[in-house]
Amino acid sequence: MKLSFFGADRCVTGSCHCLEVGGKTILIDCGLQQGRDEIDNASLPFAPGSVDYVLVTHAHIDHSGRLPMLVRQGFRGRILTTAPTAELLKIMLADSAHIQESDAAYQNRKNERAGRPLVEPIYTVEDAMRVADYIDTCGYDQTIDLCPGVKATFIDAGHLLGSASIRLTLTEGEETRTIVFSGDIGNVDQPILRDPQCFHEADYVVMESTYGDRNHTEVWSYTEELAQIIDETFRRGGNVVIPSFAVGRTQELLYFIREIKDRGLVTAVPDFPVYVDSPLARAATTIFCGDLRGYLDEEALALVQDGTAMFSFPGLRLTETTEESKLLNEDRTPKVIISASGMCDAGRIRHHLKYNLWRPDSAIVFVGFQSPGTLGRTLLDGAQSVRLFGEEVAVRAKIVNFPGLSSHADRDHLLRWIGQFDPAQTQHVFVVHGDRDVAPLFADSVKALGFAAHAPQYTEVYDLLLNAQTAPGYLPERKKVTFEGKKTAPAYQRLVQLGDSLAALIRRSKGRDNKTLAAFADAIRKIIEKFEF
To answer: What's phi and psi for 436, nearest 5 deg?
Structure first.
């Protein structure tokens, strides 16, 4: 009974874990690594044809993006996930495959000119479409007999429509062990989705730690804060460009903007247009509008039952073609543009950045985690210029980090989640899906609660019957993070992130009493005086 770690090990993306039990091989997620390339996305550290089952926690590409490659290379087993995840996988994997094909075509044009060999995409749209042939679905709180000796139960992780934490009961001979995979644990009090549920007993727990070193900035009102950013930008005559994940985050933004319009919170241009420039987001929004009883929170269900369209309001326009997308940058009317990808590494968002980053009147608003090595993180870290489509583009637009909008639990909520297990009954906690410095730090926090815990490394193997590591892993060499062309220390990167959070907190402090504001200002002044050189 072995557990191997094949992705998101001291890294935030590329989740993939492997169980071997009773002669069967079971993957929990099979994701693409995004941002900084530490491992080769084009190769797998196991034989795809030897895999019997894949359990998918949710549809985000860093958890599902190598499923087409798995099928392409010989997987013929079964994939188990929730029904909404299965629907989202159809559109998200096809979109990912289109990106793979486009990237390969672009690289081959360069290779032909240089006389270099041509490359193949790691998978194609045809490969992505074949994944559906292998999918079976289940509901929350339903126990599935996966195969002899293995039972699986999915519960709501509150991270994305259909997302799940999974408990597996494993029996081999006379021995039985239970193991919980958290998937990505959702934030609390978010729109549309329910708060994450939790299992309470397990011999082993594999849990994420994306925000294991920090808490989300307190947000008084998502709608009012976002409305203020939009209003200020429109008064300058600029655009608000929001790089957003097409599935989940875009629908949350539409939910907030509908409320902003209903309450008349933007006065500079009350009837402002909102463009969702992403075919994937358009398709995903359709799925979010289906029959989702058992998946939405009570407020969202009440809206739907009331006949209210959660994601529809005057001025909303969903673009489809590239021609429509290009026209957005020729129209000087102030507007909100929501476009993918959320980390700015692919898709139409890069064109909108090219036409708006250099404009001092515009604002680029980040509403999700930006992985190290991505263009989004580079902009948040304060780059003065970036290269887009072979052209150097100055960064003069206002760069806004909106950290309160997060689909991940923060440090305190992660600790609250694991705290629902009993340390005396839990043999070990494996901390994954956290950056290289964050995962071990959070593992120490888990140990402080009385658990045995550590952050495994890539390819590490653990024997669940012996409760012991049987093969060490390693840390793949990683690309250097640069700032304005120079290598930067992780401490400096964290300082920049905290500075963004502080600036956001200052903006949200408008309207507090004078005594609180004065104390806040004095605390900031003391920090400046202490560290000013």
So the answer is: -55, -35
Q: State residue 302's pLDDT score.
A: 65
* Distance from the Cα of residue 15 to its chain's centroid: 11
Rg (CA), the chain: 23
Rounded to 10 deg, the angle between the 411-418 and 438-448 helix axes is: 50
At 483, is the pLDDT very low, low, confident or very high (cuts 50, 70, 90)? very low
Distance CA 503, CA 529 (A): 18
The pLDDT score that the predictor gives to residue 482 is 47
pLDDT digits (tens, 9 = 90+) for 445-475: 999 999 999 999 999 999 999 999 999 988 8
- CA nearest 364: which of 387, 392, 343? 343
Residues in a beta bridge with 27: 18, 54
Whether the per-residue pLDDT at 307 is higher than 50: the answer is: no
Whether pLDDT at 380 is above 50: yes
% of the chain with per-residue pLDDT over 70: 88
Contact 296, 162 (CB under 8 A): no
Most confident option among 170-174, 185-189, 288-292: 170-174
Nearest to 420 by CA among 218, 164, 216, 196: 196
Report CA 201 to chain centroid distance, whole Å: 27
Return the domain boundaries, the chain.
Answer: 2-214+407-471, 222-405
- The answer to whether 73 touches 30, Cβ cutoff 8 Å, is no
Cβ-based burial of 165 (10 A; exposed 0-12, middle 13-18, buried ≥19):
buried
Report residue 455 CA to chain centroid gap: 20
- The hierarchical CATH code for the domain 222-405 is 3.40.50.10890
Longest dimension (CA), the chain: 71
Pairing, β 164-172 against β 150-156: antiparallel
Cα separation, 32 vs 16, in Å, equals: 9
Residues 173-190, mean pLDDT to the nearest whole number: 93
Cα–Cα distance measured from residue 19 to residue 463, given in angstroms and rounded to the nearest whole number: 10
Q: Which residues, in sequence order, are CB contacts of 89 under 8 Å at separation 6+?
A: 56, 59, 64, 67, 81, 131, 132, 135
198/381 Cα distance (integer angstroms): 35
Q: Is 49 a residue whose pLDDT tops 80?
A: yes
Q: What is the mean pLDDT of residues 505-528?
A: 77
Q: Which of 136, 9, 26, 102 is nearest to 62 (CA)?
A: 9
Q: Which of 249, 224, 314 is nearest to 508 (CA)?
A: 224
CATH assignment, 2-214+407-471: 3.60.15.10
